[in-house]
Amino acid sequence: MVSEYDFWLLDLDGTLVDVEWSYTRDVFDRVGDRLGYRFSDREAEIIWNGLTGSRDHQLREWGLDPGEFWEAFHAEEDPYVRAEQTFLHEDAEFVGDLEEPVGLVTHCQEFLCEPVLDELGIRDWFDARLCCTEETGWKPDPTPVQRVMNDLGVGHNGHRGVLAGDGACDVGAAWNAGLDAIHVERIGHERRGQCVLGDYRVRSFDELDHPYFA
């Protein structure tokens, strides 16, 4: 299956890498202290992984102002500590062997993303990368995906591409940009509370070599 595509786009957090839970819990404790709100383990997991879709919508449902939350969240995140606490999923190592153009499209902010790429030694895996912002738009908006495609030189010119990610927003961005979508379920349907449909649904990228996906 890997050879079927002319280019690959990938999400970062939850797809290629994850962060130790102790780091996540500590960040939400400190953010909660700033906001006067106690985040349960489940609430921290929901926001960290975007389990219910729009994080801003979820925060509003809990009575929190998204702007205040993200200001506190980014103030409490230490990019270098986060990088040290981030690990690469073993099944994601195939990305480093891809011969096709590879792009990164992530919601992880640049000041956090860059140290992670350096710490894990995976910067050279990507021929183009984009950290989404309000200006670029957020997945499932196809705009950031299309920008990376243009940077790779694989715009709307007959190239067949795929986007792999762990969230429904990744699948939506892929389809909105006219790409195939791979959903890698790192969390489990039970904890997520829903099934995410994609052209391919896997628990590990190792499954992509299975005859079912050929």
Spatial sequence of strands, sheet with the most strands: 5-4-1-6-7-8
Name the shape in a single word: globular
- Evaluate the radius of gyration: 17 Å
Strand pairing plus helix content: what structural class?
Answer: alpha/beta
Q: Return the string of H and E elements.
A: EEHHHHHEEHEHEHEHE
Number of domains: 2
Q: Output the CATH class name of the largest domain.
A: Alpha Beta
Q: Would you identify the regions where 5 or more consecutive residues have pLDDT less than 50?
A: none
* CATH topology value of the largest domain: Rossmann fold
Task: Provide a short characterization of the protein structure.
With 214 residues, this protein is α/β, with parallel strands linked by helices.
Write the layout of secondary structure elements.
Layout: E1 7-10, E2 17-19, H1 21-35, H2 41-49, H3 55-61, H4 66-76, H5 79-84, E3 86-88, E4 102-106, H6 110-120, E5 128-131, H7 143-152, E6 161-165, H8 168-176, E7 180-184, H9 189-192, E8 200-202
Parallel strand pairs: 1-4, 1-6, 4-5, 6-7, 7-8
Antiparallel strand pairs: 2-3
What does this structure look like?
- With 214 residues, the chain is an alpha/beta fold.
- The chain folds into 2 domains: 2-18 and 87-213, HAD superfamily/HAD-like (Rossmann fold, 3-Layer(aba) Sandwich); 21-82.
- The chain is built from 9 helices and 8 strands.
- α9 (189-192) links the parallel β7 (180-184) and β8.
- α1 crosses α4.
- The model has no long low-confidence stretch (mean pLDDT 91).
Can you tag this structure with a few keywords?
214 residues; alpha/beta; Rossmann fold; 2 domains; six-stranded parallel beta sheet; two-stranded antiparallel ribbon; 15% strand; globular
